[in-house]
Design a protein that fits this description.
The chain is an all-alpha fold and 425 residues long. The chain has 21 helices and no strands.
């Protein structure tokens, strides 16, 4: 359902209210834990309901609830529940510690950070989803940070950044499928155009991680690795790479933590259930925020917020370069308003196709720009699913990760340069 309301600036102000309460206040106070994200979203959600016109209060709340209970939101919540149960039960039976010890034994100290980034890039490219990669690698990133005394938000950001590499490039990524189908180009052609942006960005970030990690010191006398405890993680990674649905992957992982943990005597069946319960409850704030964000963003859409942005920017298109930059800005702002890079591409896709045809832009480049800039934005918004999940698993604030999301930052800069340089050819 879409509101019969003329798009206006007022329709996007709930997002501005949220940013002012949460991000601006946190920056001014120099404390990202001062303002609870749940309170910021609650305030902006109430404001979104208040400014919605042409509906009774009951219908406004129903529309809000429709967004909060949408298929995509509920799928995310089920993943959060399973991810929390797996992470905590794996930690309880020693899988995380064993995996981290194995990593510290195998990789040289100077290659821990670049090694984590490469692993995230490879896994996400194989499975085509950033979420699955983040669920698998965030606990390992947390363990590495704890063992080496590293900056926890930065180490977590390495895994999350690498996860976006594959999400942007993979042939089976939903963003790739949507972008190519919308523009009517082949996945192979979009991949070639995309790799010219993503690979230089990844190599630059990889070089930085190699430099930043050269002085890392691994504790001496590390415990002997209990390889049997790594089985749940190995299985999760293998089944994910094989293309198994992420919910099935997590279900298998949870079952294996119980089998291995009970078999080794780490805990009994009730201890296993208790760990799962703790993990699920640990995701409660994340679930509440996801529901509030889904409802608020639905009201922004209903009130014409996305249409306001698309109409406003598309009016000023002038020439091939202007078309490219407009497409990039449209999909970026759409992602900021929807917190979903696939939805952002679906939303902007039709107008992007019109701009592409009108100004003779290479449709392969347009598909690449849609995918790349949606990933750029998704990697930097603290209320996106990827940062939510990573923050929940690491028990840190989502916006504490944002300053260290170097890959999406560099990806955006390289993509902008590519749009300008390729325009001269």
């Amino acid at each position: 359902m879409k509101g019969n309301i003329k798009p206006s600036f007022l329709s996007i102000t709930p997002l501005i209210v949220f940013l002012l309460i949460y991000l601006v206040a946190s920056i001014l106070l120099n404390d990202f834990y001062k303002v609870p994200i749940t309170v910021a979203f609650l305030a902006s959600s109430v404001y979104a309901i208040a400014i919605t016109r042409d509906l009774s209060l009951e219908d406004r709340i129903n529309q809000f609830s429709k967004g909060a209970g949408s298929k995509n939101i509920m799928l995310m919540i089920w993943i959060f529940v399973l991810a929390g149960a797996f992470a905590k039960s794996a930690q309880g039976m020693g899988a995380v510690d064993a995996t981290v010890n194995a990593t510290l034994h195998i990789l040289p100290e100077s290659l821990l950070l670049p090694g984590l980034f490469i692993a995230a890039c490879f896994i996400s490219l194989s499975i085509g989803t950033s979420v699955g990669t983040i669920v698998a690698l965030t606990p390992v990133a947390v363990g590495i940070a704890e063992q080496t005394g590293g900056n926890l938000p930065m180490v977590v950001a390495i895994a999350v950044g690498g996860a976006f590499f594959g999400d942007n490039l993979s042939f089976i990524s939903d963003t790739t499928i949507v972008a190519t189908q919308t523009l009517g180009c082949k996945m192979r052609d979009k991949f070639i155009a995309n790799i010219r942006i993503a690979l230089p960005a990844a190599l630059l970030v990889l070089a930085f991680y190699a430099f930043a990690g050269k002085d890392i010191e691994v504790p001496k006398n590390l415990p002997t690795t209990e390889w049997i405890k790594i089985v749940p993680y190995i299985t999760v990674l293998a089944t994910a790479i094989a293309g198994v649905n992420v919910m099935i992957v997590l279900g298998i992982g949870i079952l294996l933590t119980g089998i291995v943990g009970i078999g080794l005597g780490t805990y009994d069946i009730f201890g296993w259930m208790n760990e799962m319960g703790k993990g699920i409850m640990g995701m409660s704030e994340l679930i509440i925020v996801t529901l509030l964000a889904g409802g608020m963003l639905e009201l922004i859409r209903y009130n014409g917020g996305i249409d306001f942005i698309v109409q406003g920017l598309s009016k000023g298109v002038n020439g091939k370069l202007g078309g490219k930059l407009t497409i990039a800005l449209l999909v970026t702002l759409s992602d900021v308003c929807t917190a979903n890079n696939t939805v952002a591409i679906v939303t902007v896709g039709p107008i992007a196709k019109q701009i592409t045809e009108k100004y003779g832009i290479d449709k392969r480049q347009t598909a690449s720009l849609l995918d790349t800039f949606s990933c750029f934005a998704q990697g930097l918004i603290p209320y996106g699913a990827q940062l939510f999940i990573a923050a929940g698993l690491a028990n840190i604030a989502p916006n504490s990760i944002v300053p260290y999301m170097y890959y999406p930052m560099v990806l955006g800069v390289v993509a902008l340069i590519y749009a300008i340089v390729s325009n001269k050819k």
